[in-house]
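Repro:
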Amino acid sequence: MIHDLVNLGAAGLMGVLWTWERMMSRQRERQLTEAHERLISHRNEIAALTDLTERNTRAITHFEETQAALRRWLEITVQARPSHSADILNPVRPPEREPRP
């Protein structure tokens, strides 16, 4: 085999290398085309996943805002009550009454 390559000379060797490079280039182009086609075929799934992620993020953000507002309301409500009332955020068990004779 090496003897055959030597007989080709410089021009023959360049021709073989050019042919090999073109073959590899076509193979790479085919791989890129297949990958692109797969991405295009999954476009709807990717769009649905992106939309779902955005909606979930909005829902979680809204939930957190609602929880923060509720906590602020509870803190204001507790501060407005007389000091002897139980703190609903930090409940303390009231002392037990002794039974009447």
